[in-house]
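Question (not urgent): is this output format expected?
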Amino acid sequence: MKSILITGASGFVGSFLIEEALRQGFETWAGVRATSSRRYLQEPGTRFLELDFGHADVLRSQLEAHRREHGAFDYIVHCAGVTKCIDPAEFDRVNHGQTALFADTLRALDMVPHRFIFVSTLSVFGAIHEQDFLPICETDTPQPNTAYGRSKLAAERYLQGLEGFPWVFLRPTGVYGPRERDYFLMVQSIAKHVDVAAGWSRQDLTFVYVKDVAQAVFRVIERDVVHRAYFLSDGRVYSSRTFSDLVRRELGNPAVVRIKFPLWMLKAVSIVAEAWAKRRHATSTLNRDKYNIMKQRNWQCDIAPAQQELGYAPAYDLARGVPETIAWYKANGWL
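Got this back:
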């Protein structure tokens, strides 16, 4: 039985990866913090490994102890990271610095796996092809315009610089599905009869269902690729209304007021919301990073390499994924 470690296992994407790893018969280790919720990690057979990426000596001792008792991992999927921070510098400290520490510790302990799959993001490329609306592809030059995107790109480049390190990067576009909270805020708003959009100009959106991200991870393992990076989406392009219209249908077509805010207004509100949250030592869903994401007009990406090299075949478009997501929200009392 091959072993796999999935870090950030208590998170949205990580918890689905745990379920898929168990389904495929891996000896499955959930990498979690001591304080992490295990609410969505109840599947029989799940093993837990507490990892402290914030302290080098603790992390080393935790991995050393695991190696003595169980050996090294065959595969590692690194999902751990942050998407919202009080201090923007925290993105680099966690997403870049702690990824680097993890890789260095694995090398020092002779625990480098057969594959180290790093869950990155389409945001490492930023707002490009905003005039021609061509899909972002691997030959484009990354120009991240968010602290989150910059931190993920820095982590990618660090891993690329490690001689012989078996990295593979997955760069999903907006990931949605059961248990996800950011898109849920949009769903909640529509349920309360308000649908908000950013700006009036054309915006091409892309999405990927969480189970298709899990599919891609295990395709990487199955195909035994290395030193490659792949974009992930469902292969379709949507207008800004498509997601909200599908959500509205699943909610029973409630009456909604559709509001389009000018970008200058969203920027001002985002700055104020972030400053107010910082004073309260809390994170804000609306912040400068989020503003840059909402402002971006082109989210198309080229998934042909993933399809051709991995056999990646998205099973969920929005028409299938949104109903399953809304049904979960309802069944679990979120709506």
